[in-house]
Each structure stands twice: as C-alpha cells, then as structure tokens.
Write a structure and sequence with these properties.
The complex is a heterodimer of chains A (about 450) and B (about 550). Chain A has about 450 residues and is of the alpha/beta class. Chain A has three domains: about 130 residues, 3-Layer(aba) Sandwich (Rossmann fold); about 120 residues, Rossmann fold; about 160 residues, Rossmann fold, CATH 3.40.50. Chain A is built from 18 helices and 14 strands. Chain B is globular and about 90 Å long. Classes of the chains: A alpha/beta (about 450), B alpha/beta (about 550). β1 of chain A pairs antiparallel with β3 of chain B. Chain A: It comes from Breznakibacter xylanolyticus.
C-alpha cells in the first residue's frame, strides 16, 4: 500500500493539514498573468517560490512557463525588497523586453510589509520602466486563501490597471475566464464564434500554454489578451464571469470602474452549466443560438442516454477547486451519478451552499471546504465506505491504486498524463469528452477486474 | 572514447554580456569562463542571483526539505508555513524508496503542513505547530518528526527548535523531533539548505545507535545519493554483489536507523560533494571515518569507485571479488554501449544542472562519444568547479555567514583512527595519486576540456544564446528549461529527475542512459518542424494539362 498509514479512524484535527487539496496564492497569479499577451509574471519573494511555481505549471502543461523573481536574500528580508524589485524591473525590461511585468507578492514580501504601489512608483521615478511599458501588481499573501484567490487577484489587477471606459460603449461581451485549461478557453471562444457573439476573453491562455513547436522559443507566444483588448473591456456592454471564486471580483471592479454590468455563471462544465452560459451569452450579446450549438447539446444528451446504465448510481469522490467542482458535481448528478465525497482546500460559503443544493438528494454526501478539507480526510471517508470513481488531480493516483478504483484526471496539477491542455472539458463538446473519459475509466476497470466468465465482448 | 568535436567557444562571453544592464553584465562576466585545466581560472559561484535575470535556482527550503531530507521514508516531515512550500515539495523529486515489508513506515507519499493562516502570522504559529505535531503522532506514530521552516517563520520569530524540544519532552523522548531553520531566503540557492540539513542530521541523528550487527567486514557509507529514478537501488545491487555492506545512504532509500548507525562504518564515499560534504567531514572529525570522492555515474566511474573501495580495504579476497564484478558488468555494458555509439558518437552536449550532476554526467557522455561543450552548476561553489584546494581562498560573504556553523569535535569514546599514511600510500600506488581524492574533490574544471565554456547560475537568456550560437545535439537541465529548449528543436534531458527514466547510476544505469540518449538524439519528429509549404525546396506548383 502506498498510503499505508491512512486508516478510516478520523480524529478532530485542529492544526495539521495532510495531503492538501489546494496550494498557495502566488501560483494562481502567475498562471493568470500568462494569459496577457506580452506579459512576464514576476514573483516578489524568495527564489524558491518562482522556481516551485514555474516547475508545477510546467509539469502540468508541458510548456515553457517563463517568470522572474526578486531573489530575496536575508538582507532584503530585513530591509525590504524595494531595491530587489527595482533592479528586477530594470533587468527584465533590458534583457527580456516584455510589454508588461505582472508582479505578485509572496508570504515573505507580505510579512515584511513591502508596499508594492510605492516600489513600482519608485521604479518609474528611477526611469527603469521604458516608455509604453507597464508594471502591474497584485497582493497575493500565501497565508490567505489559496491558488484560486491568487488567480482572482491577478485577474482583478488586469481590470484595475488596464480597463478604461470611453464615452462610447461597444456591442461586446467580456468573458472573464476562471481557472481552466487553454483548451477550455479555446472551446468557449469557439462557441462564442458559432453564436456570432462579439467577445473579449481575459485572461486567455490558449496559444500560450498550448503553443506549437516551430523551432523557436517565443518568450511571449502569440496568444493572450492584448493590451488594447484589455483596455477595451471597459467599453464592453456586459461581462460574463465564468466561475464565482475566480472572476467575481474582477467583474465587480469592472462594473464599479467602467459601469460594465455583469453576470457570474459557473465555468461551463457539463450540460446545465453550459446551458446557462449559452443562454447568458445569447441574451447579453443579443444573438440567437444557432442549430449547430443545439446539435452539440443533442449529441451530449444522446451519449449520456445511450450509456446511462453505466453511470447510474455510481459513487464518486472528488477534490479540486470550487469553480470546477460545482458544475462538475452538477453534471454528475444530471447523469444520475452520486458525488458522495467532495473536498476543496479553498474556503468560502458559496461552495457549501451550492453543494448542499446540488446534492440535496444524496443523503450520504460528505463535503467540506477550507482548512483541513484535504485529501487525507477524503481518503478516510473512502476507507469508511468505498467509491466507484475518483475525479481530481494527479495526487489521486495513490488512492486509486491503493483502493483499486477507476480514476479520471481533472484539475491541477496533472503531472503524469498529457493532453489535458488540448482536450476541452467545457461546453457540450467538452462535457461529451468528460463523459467519455468517465465511461472508459469505469469500463476499463470492469474489464480488468471482472471474473473471466463475466468478461464480455460487448458492454 | 569517441571523436572529439571542436567548436570555438571564446566569443560567447562578449556576445552575451552586451545585452545586460552595465552593472549586471559586469557581475555575470565573472561567472562565465573558458576553461583551462592546466591554468585553472577563477569562477564566480555561490553568489546572489541578480533579481529579474530568470535563474534556474530555487531556495534554501527546497535544498533542505526537498533534497536532503525528502528521500528518508520514516520521518514525518512537517512543513511549518503557508500551504505552498509543502505542496510543491510533495512527490515532485522522484526519490524512490522501498520498504522491507508492508508494515514498515513510509511517509513519502504524504504531505504534512501547518498551513499557516494570517492569524498565525500575526499572533505566532508555535501553538499550531505543537498541535500539528500532537496530531501527527496520534495518527502516524512515527519514530521521528522533522519541522521545516518556511520564509515567514523566521520573520515572525517562531522558534522551531524550542518547539521541537518541548514536544520531545511532552512525549517523554519517545519520538525524536528536530527542526530546521531553512527559510527560503537564508542563502543564495538550495545550497544553504543542504548545509543546514547536514548540520541537523549530525546533531540529531548520526551516532544515536551503537547497537549494530555487522553483515560484512567491509562497511561503508554512501553520501550525496538521492535515489532519483532508482539510482540507489542499482548501487545497492553492486555493493551487495561485491560483498560490501552499505551501512547508510544519505539519503536515497534511507531510514532513520541507517543514519543513526552511520558512525559505525569504516569508509565514507561522497557522490554529490556539494550537498553533503559537511556530513562527510563531520564523520571523519568525530569518528575517524575517512571520506573519498567517487561517482557512480558512468560505467567506468562506477568501476573506479569500486576499485577505490578495494584499494582502501586492501583485502585480496575483496579486491578479487570487486574485479570479477567489474569485469562481468562491463562486458554487458560494453555491448549496450556499442549499440548506442553509432547514434551518439561525435555529438555535442551542454549540461546545466545541480551541484555535481553537471560534472558527473560528463563521464557518461564521454562513454557515448559526446563532447561536453559547456557546463555549469545551478548551486555549486567554487570548490565544485575548481577543486577543494581553493577553499581557503573563498571569501565568506554575508549570505554564507548566516548559516549556522556547528562545532564538531572528536568523539573520544568512539573515535577510531582508520586512515594512516600507510593506507593512503597504498591507495595512491594502486589508483594513482590524482585519483584517490581523499578528503578532496578535483572539481568539474579538472575534467571538462580546454576552452569549454563554464558558466555558473546560467540565466534563461544565456541559455537561449548558447543554443542559438552552438546548436548542441542535446541539452541537459531541469523541468523549467525543458520545453523552452525543445521548442527550439533540441531535445532536453532532465538531469534532476531524469524525465521519467532511470536509474542512470551504476552499470545498469549506464546502459539505461546510453539507450535514452541514443533515443533522444535520434528523435525523428524534430525533423518535421517545417511544414512542406514552409520549406525552401518546395517546387512551385505548375499546371499539368
């Protein structure tokens, strides 16, 4: 057994987190910053933060993840990191020439109280920010919230630094993308195109973290929301936030700053969440839903109906981020599956409320969010009563092997399989992909474990 | 071995430095040199990285918790800090471990953290840490618990060492508990973390258990081997075949009790000099166990390492057994080498990784007929480049001064003189004077060719420039560099985690490496980068009637 020390006996833990279902803020900020075109993320703290975040993102995407660090020493930790950041800005613009540096803080720079506004204005005074270039920043203390919070803070910073309202509104809908894969963003943009809706997506990691191999390393790949587009979000007539935890703050700020009304919907994972997204986009972009989209929906319904017997009643354990788990659980329920154990390390009431509503007909359900809502706890629940399927990031493979349970990889990080940044899980097409993954995992397991006399040609 | 490839590398420095801000360029100039083994130049190393330059380096915590203590399976390693540091060092280093039975402790698949919140930052985190230790004991009942400090811990004044002492008392000394002041900002790289880890290993574990039943007359420690991809398993196999007992490995596939008995060995072999030379010296000072630099990376290097063991123990039977094993193994290895050689011979490589790997892997590349054009460490010191003879001339700066220096004295009761001028003389006669490396390490620059580019703490910009100017056939670095290099159409072999390959140590490992490099330099897909319509030779279409 790999996790041989995990037993069903729970204790009332007050302090120890074991096998977390979350990580820290700055990595979220780094990921989001890669969704701006020509942007180099910058980690204001010890070298290790930047190194760890780049490594984690790289393992997941199998793509270059470029970012710089302020390389704090003991001295900077005592006297403040101002000199480090100013020097970093100078070095970065001189050597790497980005259009934007997106700096985020760390637990180190937050604990010593570095004032980012002051430091960046000093960089301007010192003349190390060339004409036409930008240094934006956000506060991402690692001891508050999680990677999800960091992502939200970075996206909000985009609005703070770039969005601008001119007197003339444009017939454009902003799509504020929550934490999802580049392929998911690409799929959402494709659907918007099919609807002939005019949209601006931000952040946008497609063509950044799924870039082609062309014989050159492009520090700034062709994807990412451009500065003119980011500025123009202030003139859009509406914003749709995809994922409450990751995009609501940005939507609110855009409303306050530029009077762009908004609606926050779930990330369109699964049937109903996609229904709501398409309905919202159709209404606010003032475009009809073409048959092509209705057909995609129909194919999803067809697939689920054809294979319903394999889905029905299956008990599922899930871990990950609220914005993913909420629509995902709803999707499983719509296939008559039973999400029974769900944990997220990201704290917040909305998760608990939505889960209670979505899972109201599953009395045996256990879900938990925030501190110590970790994978160890979820595994203890599984030890108490098993499940038929696991859905989550790569850390689940240890449970999957120990418990001999089918496993679908979804979330962050996925370090042992490839292709998740290519194969969308959003929209009706993505939901079909997901349903296929689930079905194959269940049937592969059945084929591998059933008695010989029960092994069948057709399933 | 193979055909040497000659490339003029002297123009690189000028080509690359121009781009930097003036002050930055001046600093980088000292870290970029063209080697001359006969008149060894001074290289700048173990110096602060310039902010913003895009470095390969990580932090002190990573070196301490991730590298040195990570591979030991039966310690509950609690990260005291916000959740990130514990999360990122959770199963990300490929240090494999194998327990003797299913009942034995193995905490490597687990991540333990105090997950500090803002209230802990404001009011202090010691109470939460204590409670976390109580819970760890209740749930896991480990022999040992280690506490690793992250950046905010030092800043808010949490004393992890005091907490460790108090909790040890609370548990009536039934659990060995110790802390590490390995806050990320403490040093200029992971290297500071190695040093901090070494100190605490010595203070808290080494020498705790005198109760050993020797399995062999020949008992050795292997230091600086972390069982990435199963390297330690292969080295264990070789030792066993030769009838040599491996008392402890620091720290691949290790346990608490192996550390506690390390002082009972008669010989210490040092693989990664950078990360563990401190423990080697402590074992010699306290207990009289001499240490020698070896490498098990490369078939010839592995043979050499085993011959060093034979020469040290100077026992005819052992020597005969070792020679027999070497002959047997090399025969199989040579066959594998001949298969790979046609694909690899005459190719060029660059190695930028770690604090010893950029040196060690040159042996394997030599066996493949591959020339190392350029190499450098991520966190090496000058002695890792120029040899330990330069240690007295290295200036101690503020960044090194804030690492605790512990006083190590002779353990009068247990010290045993093993190394005499006579033993050394015999070894020198058997191996050649330069090859013994007793208490010594000759460094990377003694091996890499004349004129080769040696660059410390390579920046991303310099890496791109190296590739653009010299087009190596293979580039060796880590995960952060991998896909940027491969976008340029050049395969990158990760030498931190071996991609998903390995072991590469020992004889079996050499064969794996030959195979993997032959595979990588013949990657077909890189030839297809240009689409047919992008190729110059595409003939213009003409109408056919």
């Amino acid at each position: 057994m790999l996790l041989r020390h995990t037993t069903p006996k729970e204790i009332d833990r007050q302090a120890l987190t074991i096998n977390p279902a979350k990580t820290c803020q700055p990595i979220g900020a780094m990921y989001a910053a890669l969704g701006l075109h020509g942007c180099l993320p910058h980690s204001h703290g010890s070298q290790g933060c930047c190194s760890y975040h780049r490594s984690a993102l790289t393992r997941h995407f199998k793509e270059p993840v470029m970012a710089a660090t302020s390389s704090f020493s003991e001295g900077s930790s005592v006297f403040g990191g101002s000199a480090n950041l100013v020097q970093a800005i100078d070095t970065i613009f001189t050597v790497y020439n980005p259009d934007i540096i997106a700096a985020h803080t760390t637990c180190l720079s937050e604990t010593i109280g570095d004032d980012m506004t002051q430091i960046v204005s000093k960089a301007h005074e010192d003349g190390v920010v060339p004409e036409g270039k930008h240094v934006i920043y956000c506060n991402t203390p690692s001891y508050v919230g999680t990677h999800v919070t960091g992502y939200a803070n970075q996206v909000t910073a985009f609005v703070k630094f770039f969005s601008k309202a001119t007197p003339k509104k444009r017939n454009v809908v902003n799509l504020v993308a929550g934490w999802m894969e580049p392929a998911d963003m690409r799929e959402i943009k494709r659907m918007a195109n099919v609807l002939e809706a005019r949209t601006i997506m931000f952040p946008d990691m497609s063509d950044v973290l799924d870039a082609p191999l062309d014989g050159k390393h492009h520090m700034y790949p062709k994807g990412g929301t451009t500065i003119p587009d980011m500025v123009a979000t202030g003139d859009s007539k509406f914003s749709i936030g995809l994922g409450k935890y990751t995009t609501e703050d940005a939507c609110i700020l855009l409303d306050n700053k530029c009077k762009v009304k908004f609606e926050v919907v779930d990330i369109p994972i699964g049937l109903k969440a996609t229904d709501r997204f398409i309905t919202s986009l159709s209404r606010h972009a003032n475009v009809p839903v073409p048959d092509a989209i209705t057909d995609e929906r129909g194919r999803l319904i067809d697939f689920i109906a054809d294979n319903h017997g394999h889905f029905y009643g299956k008990r599922v354990a899930l871990w990950g981020d609220p914005d993913t788990l909420i629509p995902l659980c709803e999707f499983l329920v719509s296939m008559d599956m039973r999400p029974v154990y769900i944990v997220t390390g990201t704290p917040g009431k909305p998760f608990d409320e939505r889960m209670a509503a979505i899972l109201k007909d599953i009395p045996e359900v256990k879900f938990m969010s925030g501190e110590r809502a970790d994978m160890f706890r979820m595994h203890q629940w599984i030890k108490q009563e098993g499940v038929d399927l696991l859905i989550g990031n790569t850390y689940g493979k240890y449970i999957a092997r120990d418990e001999n349970t089918p496993f679908v990889r979804l979330g962050f990080p996925i370090a042992d399989r490839a292709g998740h940044n290519f194969n969308p899980k959003t929209g009706y097409v993505g939901a079909t992909n997901l349903a296929i993954d689930i079905l194959n995992a269940l049937l592969d397991h059945r084929d591998r474990t059933c008695a010989e006399e029960k092994f069948e040609f057709q399933l | 071995m193979g055909d040497k490839k000659k490339v003029d590398l002297t123009t690189f420095k000028d080509a690359v430095l121009d781009k930097y801000p003036k002050k930055v360029g001046k600093k980088r100039a000292k870290a970029i040199i063209n080697n001359d083994p006969d008149n060894m130049p001074v290289i700048q190393a173990n110096i602060r990285t310039i902010p913003g330059i895009i470095t390969q380096r990580g932090c002190t915590y990573a070196g301490c918790k991730g590298v040195v203590l990570g591979p030991t399976r039966d310690i509950v390693n609690i990260t005291h800090g916000p959740i990130g540091c514990g999360f990122y060092s959770w199963l990300t280093r490929r240090n494999q471990t194998k327990t003797e039975s299913d009942q034995d402790a193995n905490f490597i698949p687990y991540c333990f953290s105090t997950d500090m919140q803002d209230s802990n930052i404001v009011f202090g985190g010691e109470e939460k840490l204590k409670q976390a230790i109580r819970e760890a004991r209740e749930l896991f009942n480990p022999k040992a618990i280690a506490i690793f400090s992250t950046c905010p811990v030092g800043l808010i004044g949490d004393d992890v060492h005091r907490v460790a002492r108090q909790m040890k008392e609370e548990f009536n000394n039934e659990v060995n508990i110790f802390g590490f002041s390995c806050e990320g900002y403490r040093g200029v790289s992971q290297s500071a973390g190695h040093h901090i880890a070494n100190n605490q290993l010595y203070k808290n574990l080494i020498g705790n258990d005198d109760n050993v039943t020797p399995k062999s007359k020949f008992r050795v420690n292997l230091l600086g081997e972390y069982n990435i991809g199963g390297d330690a398993f292969e080295i264990e196999r070789i030792f066993e075949k030769c009838g040599v007992e491996l008392v402890s490995t620091f720290s691949g596939n290790s346990t608490v009790s192996s550390f506690e008995q390390a002082h009972t060995a008669d010989l210490t072999l040092v693989m990664c000099h950078r990360s563990i030379n401190y423990v080697a010296e402590m074992l010699e000072t306290s207990f009289g166990i001499p240490w020698f630099k070896v490498s098990f990376i490369g078939a010839q290097a592995s043979a050499k390492a085993m011959r060093k063991v034979a020469a040290y123990f100077n026992d005819p039977e052992l020597t005969e057994r070792i020679e027999k094993v070497i002959a047997e193994e090399l025969k199989i290895v040579e066959a594998a080498r001949q298969v790979a050689l046609p694909k690899t011979n005459g190719k060029t490589a660059m190695l930028f990784v770690g604090g010893s790997r950029a040196h060690h892997y040159q042996d394997l590349f030599e066996e493949l007929g591959v020339t190392t054009l350029s190499a450098g460490y991520e966190f090496g010191h000058r002695d890792d480049y120029e040899g330990r003879r330069v240690i007295p001339t290295i200036q101690i700066d503020a960044d090194s001064r804030n690492i605790e220096e512990i006083t190590v004295t002779k353990d009068e009761a247990r010290f045993k003189e093993r190394m005499t001028p006579d033993v050394l003389k015999k070894m020198e006669d058997a191996l050649g004077k330069d090859e013994v490396e007793y208490n010594d390490y000759n460094g990377l620059m003694a091996q890499i060719g004349k004129g080769a580019l040696v660059i410390d703490d390579l920046s991303h910009y310099e890496m791109e420039k190296l590739i653009e100017l010299y087009h190596p056939d293979i580039f060796c670095a880590g995960i952060k560099e991998k896909y940027a290099v491969q976008k340029m159409g050049i395969p990158l072999k990760q030498l931190h985690n071996y991609d998903s390959g390995g072991p590469y140590a020992g004889f079996q490992g050499a064969m794996n490496f030959y195979n993997d490099i032959a595979m990588m330099v013949s990657t077909s897909i890189f030839k297809e980068i240009k689409a047919p319509w992008e190729r110059e030779e595409v003939v213009e279409a003409s109408y056919v009637y």
